[in-house]
Design goal:
- By secondary structure, this protein is an alpha/beta fold.
- It has a single domain (50-202), classed as Ribonuclease H-like superfamily/Ribonuclease H (Nucleotidyltransferase, domain 5, 2-Layer Sandwich).
- The chain has helices spanning 2-7, 10-31, 39-46, 99-116, 129-137, 146-156, 175-186, 199-202, and strands at 57-65, 71-79, 85-94, 121-126, 161-166, 191-193.
- Strands 5-4-1-2-3-6 form a six-stranded mixed β-sheet.
- It is globular, with a radius of gyration of 17 Å.
- The two termini are 14 Å apart.
Length: 203
């Protein structure tokens, strides 16, 4: 690990971690009867994370449910426009929620985390299409998780500038946030990292 950190910058390390995760995922997929993914696909997938505009930060979030479905675990990772990790969070909430509502709860956790860090210009990105559409719609039609969406919108109104974007799991480098969510699902204590998160947490 120290050798890699000494040879590569933060953006390169992000791609290296993505490739390592892709190899691990491909192996599991084949073991469980799936098709073998070509190595070129793994590299392409690893390079698809899109950085935020210069001077801005991007927060990716994801959610995992524990085995009995009674714990919502959220992972959040914040990077700058060079791909360097600024901060990360793994946190759990004891609750039985439908997947779409759990995703909305994860978005709220990510939004509040950015607010706690006093960030004012942020791009929030996750793979919950319904959640992202609800936040951006400014309406009350999302009755299933409407109060959570309303809470998110209140927090977002306090940022100087904020965008909420949807990206598919393969494209938004979501494996890092998902890795943090899995940590939270297994260990229900809140963990916060600032600039010193290790690759083993991300995979």
């Amino acid at each position: 690990m120290e050798t890699l950190l000494s040879r590569y910058n933060g953006e390169d390390m992000v791609v290296i971690a993505a490739i390592a995760h892709g190899i691990w995922t491909r192996k599991n997929h084949v073991v469980h009867g799936g098709k073998f993914a070509h190595p070129n696909f793994i590299v392409k997938e690893a390079e698809e994370w899109i950085s935020p505009p210069p001077g801005r930060l991007k927060a990716n979030w994801d959610v995992a449910l524990n085995a009995d479905g009674k714990r919502v675990a959220t992972g959040v990772i914040i990077r700058d426009d060079k791909g360097l990790v600024i901060a990360a969070l793994s946190r759990t909430v004891e609750a039985c929620l439908a997947p779409v509502t759990a995703k909305a709860m994860g978005m709220l956790q990510a939004t509040e985390f950015c607010q706690d860090l006093r960030m004012s210009d942020i791009v929030l990105e996750g793979d919950s299409l319904q959640g992202v559409q609800a936040v951006n719609a400014k309406g009350d039609q999302w009755l299933q998780f409407g109060q959570i969406i309303a809470d998110i919108q209140v927090v977002l109104s306090q940022f100087r500038r904020c965008e909420v974007l949807h990206a598919k799991r393969e494209a938004n480098f979501d494996f890092a946030a998902h890795g943090l969510a899995k940590v939270a699902a297994q260990e229900p204590t809140e963990k916060i990292w600032k600039e010193d998160i290790h690759l083993c947490i991300l995979m």
